[in-house]
Amino acid sequence: MDNNNNNQIENQNQNQNENENEMKNLEKKVTKNLIKDYSNLLNGNLFKDFSIFVENKSNPFEIKVHKSILSSRSPFFNKFLRGQNDINKIF
């Protein structure tokens, strides 16, 4: 009887370890996919809804960004953009 109990406990521990390993692998896969998706979002121009125009004497340029990301990463832009839904560029 003790041998059966030991085997059951050993099997339960093995199953738990297998489940934990599967969860870790799934978390790694999801994290990898999220990083890839956000990278594509940030590097692509699709859905960028705000432009910052930089005046440079020899080379003026435009930076296209996402309002939501800009405001979540910058307290200045968060305050600036809050309640200004109709603005889509600054100079």
TrEMBL record:
Gene3D superfamilies: Potassium Channel Kv1.1, Chain A
Region named Disordered: 1-26
Biased composition (Low complexity): 1-18
Domain called BTB: residue spans: 48-91
InterPro entries assigned: BTB/POZ_dom, SKP1/BTB/POZ_sf
Transmembrane segments: none
Pfam families: BTB
Highest taxon of source: Eukaryota
This protein's name: Speckle-type poz protein
Native source species: Anaeramoeba ignava
Taxonomic lineage from the root: Eukaryota, Metamonada, Anaeramoebidae, Anaeramoeba
